[in-house]
Amino acid sequence: MTITRRTTLRALASGVAMTMLLGANMAHSADETVKIGYAVAKTGPNATGAGITTIPNYELWVKDVNAAGGLTMPDGSKRMIEVIEYDDRSSNEDLVRAIERLATKDKVDLILPPWGTGSNLAIAPLMDRFGYPQLGVTAVTDKAPEFAARWKRSYWMLGGGHDYANGLAEVLKAAVAAGTINNKIAMVSVADGFGIDLVNGARPSFEEAGLEVVYDKTYPLGTSDFAALMAEAKDSGADSFVAFSYPPDSFGMTKTAQSMGYNPKVFYVGVGGAFPIYGKIADGKHEGVMSIGGVNAASPAIQDYFARHTESAGAPPDSWASAITYASLEMLAQSVERVGLDHEKLAQELSTGTFSTIIGDVKLEDNQLRDLWWVGQWQNGTFVAVNPADKDGAVAPVVPKPNW
Amino acid sequence: MIRLAIALLGLVALALVPLFVSEYELGLMIGMATYVALASAWALFSGQTNYISLATVAFYGTGAYTVAVLNESLPYPAVLLCAALIGAGMALLVGLSTLRLSGIYFVIFTFGLAELVRQLITWYEVSITGTLGRYIFLDLTARDIYWQMLALAAVAIGLTAWINRTRLGLALRAIGDDEVVAAHSGIHLARTKLIAFTLSATLITLVGAVASPRWVYVEPLIVFNPTVSFLTVIMALLGGANRLWGPLVGAVPLFLLFEWLSVNFPDTYPIFLGLLFIAVVFVLPNGLLAGLDDLRARFGRRGK
Fold first, then answer.
1. Is B27's CB within 8 Å of A118's CB?
2. Are A171 and A262 members of one domain?
3. Residues with Cβ < 8 Å from B43, sequence gap 6 or more?
């Protein structure tokens, strides 16, 4: 037999196949573990968000629990966590199948939710049918009360668009009342789920707060040039610039504002503003920038969490949904310790119990986490929470923001 | 006749599968039926004429979106009918304006079409209805979806078999071989291509419509995922796009392989995927079925 390109390729292909077979057989380990499964986007458009907010926290939590000997059961015994993870390829069809696999083939004890509003909704009917509690963290939706009523074991922990818009309206109203800014607002939003939800919440709540939206533009998803948009916002005479944007847009707008010397007294961007990388994007001049979310930066539990996350994932967490993701897992572990792995009892405990977590004591209201931070601001290199102003750990906002 | 009987028996057997398998296995069957239907419907037009269409997801997504918009106001069968009509209408419109393009221009146009439809829907939702995500709360079980999808796959393959025996099939093959020659032998190019394109697109739209109740939540970015178009093409090509059973032979193993890879190698599977695509094009440029024929011919010669 002569060696041709064809035979070489065939040999390579069979070699690859054999390696895969070997890999598949090594995945099993001892029993008496708690099997926890999740399907999260490792590839595709959802991979960025999942890679920043969801996966590092799942990994950190599993590491923390197993380092402590495992999950504590009601009888005081400990069982190690065994993880089964799949890639949903950012496709809901694949995600649904992965959940079916976790529930009926792998028969895992618990399922952790995927990243994103759409993904969490796609699996909600399945989780309900199989009886698993679903701790939906990374889903911002105003319909949470409806969903919690429809699927009794689903929990919605990041609020809705109206909440964040109302929070921002309060901050701006207070600044107007104090005479530091005029009541005019320039507002831009991304033409996608998140931007639309927030802008729909913002229009009425700004009006109610006596704020005048003098510039209101929507831009398509994937826009990369914001010069025209920002120039118009600058000329609008508004003291406040508000963008309900996604990370790439938030970053792009910041750079554009800096390069054109646009210095509104309030500069607010959407998702991405609370990412640890934001400071670097803003060239170290992120002081005073406002964004969605926030953490109680003075809390030792949060500081400890930031340190552990940095050590485990190689980067600090984002200051919005990351801490809540980790807290939701702490709630799960404490529920298991109190009632065991029975899904009905677990769901009951999650709905009614009080839990001590890194974001403080948590108790859900109608299966929703309502005790959240709506607005945060960069102050002295940390992203601190400024609204709700009466919540423990809130810091007074700095207005006007210093120039870039 | 015997072939038809075997095919029908197979179909009956497949229809009985849900009575014996777990939910996950049923999910797998739905996925396979989906891609067999997609690849067969795609090959109905593209396989014969060699017009590589990347518009699959434009129609697939349109079908899903139709269900999302209408599921609360119309009974389910009427929703499916609307989806089919919308798909057919869109295909006629697109076909009339573009089937004069050929080669790479057609490929690029069809790829752009999916993006165009997605942006149009987004624009409409943002500026007219002021919302983006839509919900599908339909009381359909996985079994219902499986049976509908299986029926669609059967229709796609049956329709192809029937067309292959008609003048339309002959005309399509002639166009695939050489468009100029076909025109000179009196084939009405535009009409022939338009009929096949519309049939194919209508089926694809229905596949999207049937699949969508499994997702509950629909938004343009979710349903217009270009991967669907690429997978459909590569599956049809693997099996052999110009053969009746080619798309099925390509879709089933590839689908199972993707599933197996994502289960066992969640981190590295895209690399294997890329290698596999290269291998398909190098090793089996005319598809698995043609490759098998080649192999048989070679062994036949050796035997003599």
1. no
2. yes
3. B160, B236, B241, B242, B246, B247
